[in-house]
Amino acid sequence: MALIVQKYGGTSVGTTDRIKNVARRVAHFHQQGHQLVIVVSAMSGETNRLLGLAKQISDNPSGRELDVIAATGEQVTIGLLAIALHELGIDARSYTGGQVRVLTDNAYTKARILEIDEKNMRRDLDTGMVVIVAGFQGVDAEGNITTLGRGGSDTSGVALAAALNADECQIYTDVDGVYTTDPRIVPEARRLDKVTFEEMLEMASLGSKVLQIRSVEFAGKYKVKLRVLSSFDDPDSTAPGTLITFEEDEHMEQAIISGIAFNRDEAKISVMGVPDKPGIAYAILGPIAASNIDVDMIVQNIGASSHTDFSFTVNRNEYQKALAVLEQSRGQGLEAREIIGDNRICKVSVVGIGMRSHVGIASKLFKSLADEGINIQMISTSEIKVSVVIDEKYLELAVRVLHKAFELDKEPA
Ligand code: ADP
Ligand code: ASP
Ligand code: MG
Question: Which residue, among 164, 184, 162, has the nearest Cα to 173 in the 3D structure?
């Protein structure tokens, strides 16, 4: 008998029939004698719909109220799943984040979990009940409802598993594991049996939404055994999904590249003809940071005739805000010939811990894109990844070409 936290994502609970399917799966594991805490997302599309309602009323809605609204999506699915389990004769009880007491900070729409009270869950588990918890939400110290950022139910699942010291956290989704890239873009993508935390962190941060990055951080920090599996497989199936592992536990030869991630939500801003002198990066990016806009890649060109060009990328939904901040800086004395922006770019990245010990990855990437006539606008690297910014219209082609060039469709030798 094990204590297992299972998280079911939006597609897996997208209709009442699918909720009944999840209930049957949960019943199956319950009958095997496991203690179960089930974390669910809102029905697919529901969080978008709810946030869309707020946007119909205001361009700049309050974060506190957005969280009040968005958290209702998960509240519906926990109740429905509990009822579906009751129909199968299984004792189950649902909890919102606040009822468990998933305590978070008060950063509305992107709150961080600070503490989880396991008391209620333990009590119910000890009586043989299935505990159902709303993903994506918590409460701050004042009792305000908070949410954990898009995709945040993954983090709820892992955080509950850490708090309960669960034997395993299983993330059930609409694909049967973590693939070499999004299988919806590249049909030849291959499921990985294992991927290291470091690689998964990079892939999540670079756009692979199969796991929210904070869930991976949490699992790494608290050593939660984390597995990604399909909710559509038969519960009796022995499909292993993908296990997220620690590098030091790996004795096998690693593939050099494990996966390709991409992110469409990018925008690029170039500040042209700024004085090439100390303090210019701060003059441009200081006000951007002060406005809480995250900057990703930064490139400063070599100066000519004492002027230079400065480019950086931001999340696409902060593009207009960033442009407005720059125009304001210009009004207040930032010297620049021109400010130009492009919100039709994307970022494609190859990730693999094998890069530490192999050279030539970046040049292979550059050549593969060049052969297709795809222009690289920006480049950034870390120890285990190379990312490039390209025109959004080449995204799918680039991902497919790189997947083939790095032979990710083939089992590693
Ligand atoms: P859920 O609603 O279950 O949380 P998500 O839509 O958030 O599911 O995440 C699952 C999706 O992530 C898949 O349907 C797939 O399209 C996408 N995805 C992106 N990159 C990968 C990858 N490397 N491996 C598997 N799935 C990926
Ligand atoms: N329902 C939330 C979202 O759509 C959380 C999640 O699905 O993980 O972002
Ligand atoms: Mg998700």
Answer: 184
pLDDT at 409 over 80: yes
- Give the number of other CB atoms < 10 A from CB of residue 129: 19
**Residue found by looking up tokens 């799918």 in the block:** 396
Residue of 40, 46, 136, 171 best suited for mutating to test ligand 2, as the one with most atoms within 8 Å of CB: 136
Q: What angle do CA 368, 374, 375 make, to 5 degrees?
A: 115
**What ligand has the least distance to the C-alpha of 39?**
2
pLDDT digits (tens, 9 = 90+) for 165-187: 999 999 999 999 999 999 999 99
CB under 6 Å to ligand 1: residues? 9-12, 41, 151, 173-175, 178-179, 181-184, 208-210, 259
156: its two tokens: 């709820």
pTM of the full structure = 0.93
What integer best gives the mean pLDDT of the chain? 95
| Ligand 2 atom 8 nearest Cα | 151
* Cβ within 8 Å of residue 404, ≥6 positions away: 188
Residue whose CA lies nearest to ligand 2 atom number 9: 150
**Residue 370 is encoded by which pair of tokens?**
């060049």
Tens of pLDDT, residue by residue over 7-19, are: 999 999 999 999 9
For residue 411, the model assigns a pLDDT of 84
Instruction: Ligand 1 pocket test: pick from 7, 40, 182, 213 the residue with the most ligand atoms within 8 Å of its Cβ.
Output: 182
268: buried, middle or exposed (CB in 10 Å: 19+, 13-18, 0-12)? buried
Question: Which ligand sits nearest to residue 74's alpha carbon?
Answer: 2
Q: Are 38 and 130 in contact (CB under 8 A)?
A: yes
